[in-house]
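Good morning C.,

I know you're traveling, so I'll keep this short. The sequence:
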Amino acid sequence: MAEVLVTLQEIAAATGRKADKVREECSALGLHVREDWAGRPAVSVDDARGLASGTTRRAREHADEQARVKAACKQWVADRTAAAMAGADAAEEKVKRGGVRSFLPGAFVRQGEVSPAEIHAARREGYQHAGAQFERRNRRPGPYVGLVFVDSAEEGSSLASAVGALRGPAKVQAPAREVA
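The tokens, ready to paste straight into the viewer:
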């Protein structure tokens, strides 16, 4: 069974445009322009309805915008991860240089060296602090990404960012010991 086609000239007459402009729009939207029985350029009835009403163009614009937002979200997550990793690396270097030593009960420390537990704790604190600072300074570009380190009230707030910078990472607390 042959598909019913609508010529570009008929679409142009119905929408008040020139047939060349309709053909350009078909090309821009990725619609397949065929020839009807008389050899005239034509599109399917569904494509003609979408061209005449503008729904095909709006759907394409919406899809392009969604793709842009998703790409921005993916980049934001990559930037947040890079910032958090840089914070962890900086914290590790600081501990190895001997600038900070935290008390971790039960950590095995040889004379003059930093234990793996202290390095891990410093990296964790640095990662969390840098990730929180990134989320405080940079708003999410869309709804497809969740906050990991801060709540939505602190997101994108320069005041919260300044307070977080002053407060610093969470301090390591020694576990409470029961005295018998």
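Safe travels,
E.
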